[in-house]
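Encode chain A's predicted structure.
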Amino acid sequence: MPAGPASEETGGSVFRIPTMDCATEEAEIRRALEGIPGLRGISFQLSARTLRIDASSTVVPLALDAIRRAGFDPQPVASGSPQAHGRTSASRDLWRLALALLLAVGAELLAFFAPNAMAFKGAGMALATAAIWLSGFSVYRKGFAALRHGRLNINALMTVAVTGAFLIGQWPEAAMVMALYAIAELIEARAVDRARNAIQSLLDLAPDSAEVHQPDGTWRAVASKDVVLDAIVRVKPGARIPLDGVVIAGAGAVNQAPVTGESIPVDKAVGDAVFAGTINETGMLEIKVTAAAANTTLARIIQAVEQAQGTRAPTQQFVDKFATVYTPAVFALAVAVAILAPLLVDWTWAQAMYKALVLLVIACPCALVIATPVTVVSGLASAARRGILIKGGVYLESAHKLKVIALDKTGTITEGKPRLVATEVLTSSIPEAQVLRWAGDLAGHSDHPVSIAIAAGLGQSNGQLTGFTALPGRGIEAMADGQRLTLGNHRLIEERGLCNAGIEARLAVHEAQGRTVTLLATDTQVLAIFAVADTIKDSSREALAELHALGVRSVMLTGDNEATAKTIASQAGIDDARGNLLPEDKLAAIETLQKRYGMTAMTGDGINDAPALARSDIGIAMGAAGTDTAMEAADVVIMNDDLRRIPETIRLSRRTHAVLWQNIALALGIKFVFLLLAIFDNATMWMAVFADMGASLIVVFNGLRLLRR
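Encoded structure for chain A:
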């Protein structure tokens, strides 16, 4: 058997294991590979049913042999093969199991209508044997492998139960139980795949080809995976954008829902970033490619969520540990019933053996084991569809316990760029329109952020300026319409001796609100005051109100001065504000909040706030579409800069937590009821298999409810 194709990204050979559905099978394969010399590492991707083996070409065959002895069939995955995404052919399995069920029904009919006729009895046994073979081949293979190694998993229990029932003469029931079990397993696997493929379906949004500009000036369709960096790609109206890039020509509205969760299209023009898989709804765009197909923002979202699916949430860890104790305990109970019941109660050995086998079927921990991963995967997929990237089940589950959220100011609560928020014309000797035109002209000739904000707010005219001079740290001056004009800060106006008590009072009002004040003056008087501030996002107030409604306290941590911090906090509705903080001060503040309130999240840009993000219980990066650093620094990434995604994450976490414990209660409750029925001689194998697989299907479909919007 050849080694699977090596991965260029992480190294190793990739194999698909079709029957690896949950953590139980993963554990079986891990144990099978223990102790193989030269095996450098293995990694599982349950969502794709794949295993990566990091080993030399001589060691890989040894690992594959060990996996086969454990009852699994590893298949090499070709690079880019759709099989790598866990897509299997259900129709062939369905026809095989339908035939098995038909044969099992035939065996039941023969046993019912002619229980004592030897000819029919032989035919019935043959039908039952064929049904068990068709439906239970993989179960037997994995079950015998587990028993050889002394392990009691789901397949081992079913193997013993069905074989025992056949041997004590309950062959029609044994066939029916195995057929129903296999059909229910198939339904369950398809349902689980629905959750696991919810993320993978995003990958299909990116087109397979792109129109690429050629050296001779023509455009040619090229496979997206073959498009090189800095290539120029054309995207027509209504088409999907194939790769991440920057617009270099054209303008249009782009639907970014697959990446950011925003349903409202975003206007894009020259210089704006666009993402693979998003839809160009209007206008022709020419885009300079900034990321290869395997490294687009959409691809990295999918990769991060798939990796998150491999982590264990706290409840899942509990269930896995519980199952390792629960299954052997019930197996021991079944053995005790088989041996002790004829001695202690009025049961025959055949009756005791039958009841013990019923107990084994009921004991299968399938529903319990599958209850948590399908719920966690559904929650992760639901979040990703909303532009919320949660990098592990532990964060999805624990977010419901958050007591306080610390937030950076710039770019998180506010827009992150200054805007003109107030204008006051102080003179009546010059028309207001003239004063504002002069201010716009001067500001338009400066590249300072404050000047840019004033120019944008006033609108730049075509007035002629002469003698333009920059005054570093103070402002600018120039001649216009025969007047020498100065546009500068408070310090410059004081140096020119133009301040008075009235102007100082007006400046104090603006500065108390955290605004940056600029003044327009001639040589003899101040003409106008312009106040610039970093404005609060429209969504911030709503998000903070939602957080407070959820019982979560808010604290703003910023490097800005105290006056600005308190003003923004008051406007946004934040409980507490702390200013003049360096990165180490933010780190200390997080530690203080954790000690005082409990579980604390930090929200920031993922770069400057890295120490605080790392120290918090859950680090949340804002506006991280296309930003590698933010994705790596945080535990949760909000793919746009909308704070409302945070209370949405908490609500999703609470729903996920509730569904997890609903599933555990359902799985254990149904098991407990049927264990009592079996012990008191009121349960059959039919009832046992319906109880076991019925519980499994109930918890799977209950977990899938999280995929609803």
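Residues 1-10, 79-88 have pLDDT under 50 and may be disordered.
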